[in-house]
Amino acid sequence: MTRKINFGAIAVYYVIAVICRYIAVKTDLLSGIENGYAQILLRGVGPALGAFAAIKLFSLSNPLSLKGIYKTAALPFLVYWILPAFLIAGTDYFMTGKFPILLMFTVLVYGLLEEIGWRGFLQEQLKSLPTFTSTVIIAILWFIWHVNIEMNTQYMVFLGIIFFGTWGIGKIYKKTGSLLAVAGVHSLNNFFRNGIHDREFILIVVLLAVWIGFVIMYDRKKKPSLTQETV
């Protein structure tokens, strides 16, 4: 039986997400907040608030699982959060003498707030659609949510990045069902706001290789046990 798409819930989710984003980045309403880490989190809180509101208002059965397919949340937390935080912060300390571990976890929490909405809620709501269709819809809505309305070359490149990011993170979410996992992958882009140079590129490749390998290994490990249970 094909699951119906709850367009009302999606509308509520998206309106709340966009309003929160607009207030955070386009107005001075939050200018009194001096804590830089709090400002980072407020820019990304909209999708999470929208998801929780839509689920509550429409009484949706939505998983929003931190652990996903894993037995406990500790495993994805270790692989997708602790590993990148200490690898990136440790490399930064080695190169600059600074150890920005608090910033690392702030960025990861920011990614989680977004992923609660984009994958945990919206991808779940659209999962009855073909993958390409749902990817296009999520990518366009995600792009607009950033309050980017100029249609120049720079933003077209950004839209392309958003599309491939939606596809890639969506694949991880389908495989793991874990918000911790997709938040870690999502945060890679936000870790390197000053551009991607040789060091950043190497770190991205290493982390992606570890994560993809981990997903494949866990998937293979899980399949034999499922086969045994059905025999």
UniProtKB/TrEMBL annotation:
Residues 99-192 form the CAAX prenyl protease 2/Lysostaphin resistance protein A-like domain. This is CPBP family intramembrane metalloprotease. GO terms for molecular function: metallopeptidase activity. It holds the Pfam family Rce1-like. It comes from the Bacteria. The chain crosses the membrane at residues 7-24, 36-57, 69-89, 101-122, 129-147, 153-170, 201-218. It comes from Flavobacterium endoglycinae. Keywords: Hydrolase, Membrane, Metalloprotease, Protease, Transmembrane, Transmembrane helix.
